[in-house]
Amino acid sequence: MSFDYDAIIIGSGMGGLATASLLTQLKGFKVLVLEKHFKVGGFTHTFSRHGYKFDVGVHYVGEMQPGSRSRQLFDLVSGGAVDWAPLPDIYDKFVYPDFTVCASNNRAVYINELVNRFPHEKSAIHKYFKDIDAVNLSIQTKTTASLLPGVLAAPVNAFNSAFNKLAIISTADYLNANFKDNKLKAVLVSQWGDYGLPPSLSSFAIHALIATHFLNGAFYPTGSAETIAQSIVPIIKGAGGDVLVNHGVEEILVKNGTACGVTGKDQSGTTFRFTARHIISNAGIYPTFQKLLPENYKLAVPGFTEDLDASSISIYIGFKRSPKELGFQGENHWLHSSYDHDAEYAARNNPEGKPGFAYLSFASLKDRLAEKHTAQVITIASAAPFKQWQNTAWKKRGSEYEQYKERLTENLLAMIESRYAGFRDLVDYCELSTPLTVESFTGHPGGRIYGQPMTPQVVASRSFKPDTHVKNLYLTGTDILAPGVMGAFMGGVFCAARIMGSFGLAEIMTAASSSRYSPTKQVTEVDQREPQKVN
Questions:
Q1: What backbone phi and psi angles, to 5 degrees, belong to 457?
Q2: From CA 37, how far away is CA 274, in angstroms rounded?
Q3: Which among 377, 365, 381, 366 has a CA at the least distance from the CA of 424?
Q4: pLDDT of 141-177, one tens digit each?
Q5: If both were cysteines, with which of 47, 59, 247, 323 could 34 make a disulfide (CB 3.0 to 4.6 Å apart)?
Q6: What pLDDT, on a 0 to 100 scale, did the predictor assign at position 88?
Q7: Cα distance between residue 282 and residue 9, in whole Å
Q8: In 10 A of CB 86, how many CB atoms?
């Protein structure tokens, strides 16, 4: 059979772009990336309104210090064209009703702050940091073993005691077994919004991955997150591949049990059909298995229940003046209404009530190239309150929906104002997105921004393999490893490694450590202009 491409990738998010770049550079693949949105990048894309530019999903990324393994890998994927600037030494503030804890980019400083505030839990605090390191290593081991032949993977997994003992218990079970102080328990999981599940529902594995990810500080791409796609797209195209926007894949073609192509429609409604030796989905495990595969190949996906539907409500804010007037320096703020994170999670079903928490991030204070000051306020949300507008189109959901969004905006801004007086006086422009917005552009059911929920049950059963039950069909992105930018990125690395063969990961790591890329290389501009008018 003659193929149009070596590989077709469904979706241009971080995982898809990483896989495409590695297969292009290291195997000479001709790759086609198909994106349903009118911009490349998935949650790494940006948009502009009234002179303000907003990032959608990149707020901070860990382990991007020069020389780190993650930075070497990212420089390989991007051709060294993304410059990562560090956030302030205090990169996160956990703000509770009666105190604030600062997360430092110096592990020892952060540990000392916790010990000084909770001296009665000193030994448990030190044990906790050893445990999250052990679980982080166990996940790396488990993922690497997934690329090995079964005869080698089995003993590696059998001796992975940290995974078997700690990774697949709930975060709450770990905290309750090791700590007595409820305030300390709350503080340690203040970033649970990064993975979308409260302590009682999340696997300790995902908590440990996120907690360790930022212990060496946080970083942000200079020039905004759009520089990521701008750096990778020319690599794909330069090798004869293509990146096509406004191309929504509707079905994965399967012949005799083997994936061999895709069909769908472009913006004009014209049907397209492309074939390839490898089909790679960055659309998410649920849409892939439940929507894109032919009926007799569809597969149930655990974890996608209404009690686990975590999406987001986001306010994109443009400022009249610099938020430095109020003392902000570029750090993120996690504003929690209480110490009960499970109650905060439950509040997602009633967005007109008191928000459980709000995450406040200032992109413009992290980016020296930002021309105007912006911020984003995010809280977790369920799809349930928005179901009455489920079958409406973006920008055409009606006046009641717009009024509802205005009330949600007021609630979140009031929460910020209650902690930081004068905040609202700086606001010039606001735009709010809901789970419906996320679903419209990504196809994730209910706007689930975190992919498959990482509960203890899901983690215990997860193979951490990009392979699927259909030959030559692979997954990339967050549903291989973990949610977030680096979770999706590493999912892309492991997907590429699997397709490259038995020594694929070693080949990638060798190339990444070659230091042939300069972190300050000029970004190549890519034409990703938005339409002049979107109705």
A1: -65, -40
A2: 18
A3: 377
A4: 999 988 888 777 888 888 888 998 999 999 999 999 9
A5: 247
A6: 97
A7: 7
A8: 17
